[in-house]
Amino acid sequence: MFRRLLTVAGMTVVLVLSVMVAPTQAAKMPSHRAWLNDTAQALSGSRAYVARRVANTRGKLALNLDIDNTSLQTYYNRGKAIPATLRLARYAKSRGVAILFNTGRHVSKRKSSKAQLRRAGFPVNNVCLKHRGESLSHSKQRCRRIFVRGGYRLIANIGNRSTDFVGGNYMRSYRLPNYGNRLG
């Protein structure tokens, strides 16, 4: 009897785990086109929002943008700009808004990161990077504090991971898709 109960319990655990794991393993990443459409949808209304902020907010206004899979493609088409983010950054810059980048890339990558962003067509006012031994969420918060202490009002914070939004110092957020953290 005990052996039979143990066998049933074991089979139940295996069955439950297989059901829980199977959807995650079976899930596929969307096509490049679908991802770009999802990204454009996530930024829907952002241009009008920037226009309102420029018209109604005093001070040095800025966008705070993550780099990887927010501004530059690193999963699908490495190094190319994400079109919806690039359009927003160029529009904001044309309205006098500073374009600030806040990334989990290591501080040793400052020069190459700026060069990649500029090659992709982004205006770049500043880039803040992660220090060795610093957690990603701490780095993101530290960078926003630095920007704010520099006199900027961060009218929008744009990223694709929860760590991009921990803490405050920004007026509005736009979260781009990352499909269960499968895009870094």
Helical fraction equals 40-55%
Shape: globular
CATH superfamily: HAD superfamily/HAD-like
Strand order of the largest sheet: 3-2-1-4-5
CATH topology: Rossmann fold
The CATH C-level class name? Alpha Beta
The largest β sheet comes out as: 5 strands, parallel
Approximate strand percentage: 15-25%
What do you see in this structure?
With about 180 residues, the chain is of the alpha/beta class. The chain has a single domain (about 30-175), classed as Rossmann fold (3-Layer(aba) Sandwich). The protein contains 6 helices and 5 strands, in the order αααβαβαβαββ. β2 (about 100-105), α5 and β3 (about 125-130) form a beta-alpha-beta unit. The chain is globular, with a radius of gyration of 21 Å.
